[in-house]
Amino acid sequence: MHTTIDTVTRIYATGEHAAFTDLCAWRGKYYVAFRRAYSHDIVPPGEIAVLTWDGTQPKRPHWQPCGVISHPHGDCRDPKFFATRHALYLLCGVYLPMPSHEMTAGLSPLATDNLLITHITFTTDGEHWASLQPILRPNYWGWSMVPTRAGALLASYHVGTDGERTSSIALWSSVNLLRWQSYGTIYDGASYTKDAQDYRYPSGQPSEPVLYIPDQQRLACCLRTENSMAIGISLAPHQDNWRWWNTKEMIHSSAILATEHSWLLSGRALTPVYANTTQRRTGRAATASPRGRMPDMPSFLGYQSTTALWTLNGQYVEPLLTFPSGGDTGYAGLCYGRKPGEYYCSYYSQHNYDANGIHQASLPSADIYVATIHVEE
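RE: above sequence
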């Protein structure tokens, strides 16, 4: 597969922290959603902005506002589109004050001092959005949806008592997308034995499940596990018969899209950065100097973060390209372009503000980009 970047357009840059994108095509137009706020943090709170483009002048696309989605008491984050014939839905997580804090302290900068409630909204004309409606149980963050014959399935991760770490990945089902019921747990955070077989789940704390449908019988999911990315696959009805594989790639996946022969996966790539990079590049083992002194060991500085694109075939992930990006970046969206072999990818990045590329959420500014990709298979 040969993949090239045709254009990269910065579509939103105000100096504030614009982040966590998604992208879709609906009724002949393209839509990008993202959170905008004064920082990455929960306080001060953020809102969801939606921009649209009619597909004309691809070299200089004109993205214009078509909606702002906010909560009077909460911080809205991580918008996710779900397009149907009748409406365009948008899912997001909203941090709300604990009932005991609502009238006093309000939102807390610490995630676990707030409630996380998944909300949904929709538009039938691309301009006017319904009021946010809460769905799911508190602290179950709805992350990705896939269509079914009866409606849709939604994967969520449980926000635990230690930051945003999780103990389970749950599936929910719905017919009308506004009322959801529990469908099954596809990751329970434990290892157990069943039918004389040992089912061991990925290490780390899994979160941000991205669903995709390999074929009519199987449902698949990519999980962020901090140390790597895990891939799970199950046969229908997808409620408890999941098998998981740990990949070696340090990827925070955010969007998966089918092409003619394989799947495209976009998200954040993490590369360890060390102060002493010479030894890391050569790969040679440390040896004592002539005077008997051991050389300085590499000092870990952090992770270099970029937004990238991979091909996903079964359990295997292969890198394709890296977008201009750095710092606090990722949370990409993918959709089909205007002609065969063309795809669009939305993402956010701090590379115009952060020269070293080390991931740091404390840096306030980040911009929104849309890249045009050409794929030859």
